[in-house]
Specification:
It holds the Pfam family Aminotran_4. The protein has 353 residues and is α+β, with helices and mostly antiparallel strands. It has 8 helices and 17 strands. The structure holds 2-OXO-4-methylpentanoic acid.
Length: 353
């Protein structure tokens, strides 16, 4: 299928690239492709960025049949655009599609569309330390219909946002609150997918956490509320007694690409790492006996984010003196250096456009 390009006649003024918030500004173009029953995905095209028209009864507004992804582009010193493991994002989008009864996309075609889009909008890739072009592919159900069933039409889009850090704290450790009343995901639910509903259901708990002075909440399992799952904006890792531990993927945790990259890096360095069930009690016990050495989150937007304070019930666990730990710093440095091209990409993770 040919991807057509309609360039904007009115390029927008760029924001101050040295002082970028996360996800607020958008580049000049976007990628769109439509799906109609009987026709499949069709008309892949790059067009000027702008509002789209949808019927008020479009199914996405009512039953949230939608999926999304998040990845980043960087510009290396030789002017090349660098995408970090984009194939993994499109593969994961299809996993989410399957769960949300959305038709599968052609991953190679979408990657081609993304490459053309970032090439066209490469002037929008910020170069300041800590910034990137955050890329948001997503699919929405567009049928004008109020019955609950899979839509027969969809829109796949990719938009790009020159962005700064997700957490204003940067590499300063964040404070996290263990959520033990609300749950994010349940067995057999959609926790492993990137779908808006997972995030909508988490906002209330986040509001409460913010009111208490915390950045995010740490979710426990939806059955016993004993086992650690994820933060919502990131997966979570602990270093306990020399071993790095992260909750195993169990169907209710997102299979993060930064999570996967972190595990692969640790293995390549010979650092013991395990994916297993880990209870909040185990973390609390490790804190009490002095073996809770580090805690950090991983995510595309969050990159690697040290956790300096974990609060559970009335207990406040101050981790590594509220300073970034040695292994957390090493993973952060290695991943960001590979992403930006400052370090050789021995893992073969970067796609140069
Ligand atoms: C990402 O890290 O790309 C996400 O989609 C998480 C979101 C909370 C920004």
């Amino acid at each position: 299928m040919e991807i057509t390009i309609n360039k904007t006649q009115n390029p927008k003024a760029k924001p101050d690239m040295s002082n970028l918030p996360f996800g607020k500004y958008f580049s000049d173009h976007m990628f769109i492709m439509d799906y109609d029953e009987g026709k499949g995905w069709h008309d892949p095209r790059i067009v000027p960025y702008g509002p789209i028209e949808l019927d008020p009864s479009a199914m996405v507004f009512h039953y949230a049949q939608e999926v999304f992804e998040g990845l980043k582009a960087y510009k290396s010193s030789d002017g090349h655009v660098r995408l970090f493991r984009p194939d993994k994002n499109f593969a994961r989008l299809n996993v989410s599609n399957e769960r949300l009864a959305i038709p599968q996309i052609d991953e190679a075609l979408c990657l081609e569309g993304l490459k053309k889009l970032v090439e066209l909008d490469k002037e929008w890739i910020p170069e300041q330390e800590g910034t990137s072009l955050y890329i948001r592919p997503f699919i929405i159900a567009t049928d004008p219909f109020l019955g609950v069933k899979p839509s027969e039409s969809y829109k796949f889009m990719i938009i790009c946002s020159p962005s700064g850090l997700y957490y204003p704290e940067g590499l300063a450790p964040v404070k996290i609150y263990v959520e033990d009343s609300y749950v994010r995901a349940v067995r057999g639910g959609t926790g492993f997918t990137k779908t808006g509903g997972n995030y909508a259901g988490s906002i209330r708990a986040q509001v409460v956490a913010h009111e208490k002075g915390y950045s995010q909440v740490l979710w426990l399992d939806g059955v016993e509320q004993k086992y650690i799952e994820e933060v919502g904006s990131m997966n979570i890792f602990f270093k306990i007694n020399g071993e790095v531990v992260t909750p195993a993927l169990n169907g209710s945790i997102l299979s993060g690409i930064t999570r996967m990259s972190t595990i692969e890096l640790l293995k390549s360095w010979g650092v013991p790492v395990s994916e297993r069930k880990i209870s909040i009690q185990e973390v609390s016990d490790a804190y009490d006996n002095g073996t809770l050495e580090e805690c950090f989150g991983t995510g595309t937007a969050a990159i690697i984010s040290p956790v300096g304070e974990l609060s559970w019930d009335d207990k406040v666990m101050l981790i590594n003196d509220n300073k970034i730990g040695e292994i957390t710093q090493r993973i952060f440095d290695t991943i960001t250096n590979i992403q930006t091209g400052k370090e050789e990409d021995k893992m073969g993770w970067v796609l140069k456009v």
